[in-house]
Amino acid sequence: MKIRLRGHHLLCLQGFQGYGYSEDFVLNMVRINEMRKSADCTVTLTNEPDDICSACPNLKDNLCENKKQNEIIVEMDNEVLSHLNMNNEYNSIDLFNEVASIFNSSDSVENICNECKWAEKCLFYKKLI
User: Fold this and answer.
1) Shortest CA distance to 51 belongs to which of 75, 22, 31?
2) Which residues contact 127 (CB under 8 A, 6 or more apart)?
3) Cα separation of 66 and 117, whole Å?
């Protein structure tokens, strides 16, 4: 199985605990979070709407909410992706292990997670601060 993920979602999935923008979004996030834990799952990376975004009610005209918010999201993606090779197709388990080793302190996620509206509920973020 294959999934397409944007950069910052590599962090979000690690801290996800069932909250989301809508019921459809949460169900999709749960499905993708389970898929990514499978040894036969591969991931391609992007800084554009991905398989998680496909169920988000805030996705309009291929933008997250609006142009300004979308720019912020793309900056978050690019910060994560700057540590990885976007041209690679990754084994999901290996990728998430690599991401966890790169983003392992509050300093490493400062420019990515600090302004996130989900930070207070995110287990990944909470374990780093």
Assistant:
1) 31
2) none
3) 16
β-bridge mates for residue 63, sequence order: 60
What pTM was estimated for this model as a whole? 0.93
Structure tokens at 45: 């990376």
- Using the CB atoms, write b or e for 104-129: b if 16+ within 10 Å: eeeebbeebbeebebeeebebbeebe
Going by C-beta distance under 8 Å and a sequence separation of 6 or more, which residues neighbour residue 110?
none
Per residue in 31-55, pLDDT (tens digit) is: 999 999 999 999 999 999 999 999 9
**Whether residue 22 has pLDDT greater than 90:** yes
The residue count of the chain comes to 129
Give the count of beta carbons closer than 10 Å to the beta carbon of residue 64. 20
CA distances (Å), 116 to each of 5, 12, 40, 43, 93, in order? 18, 10, 31, 23, 25
Round the average pLDDT of the chain to a whole number and report it. 94
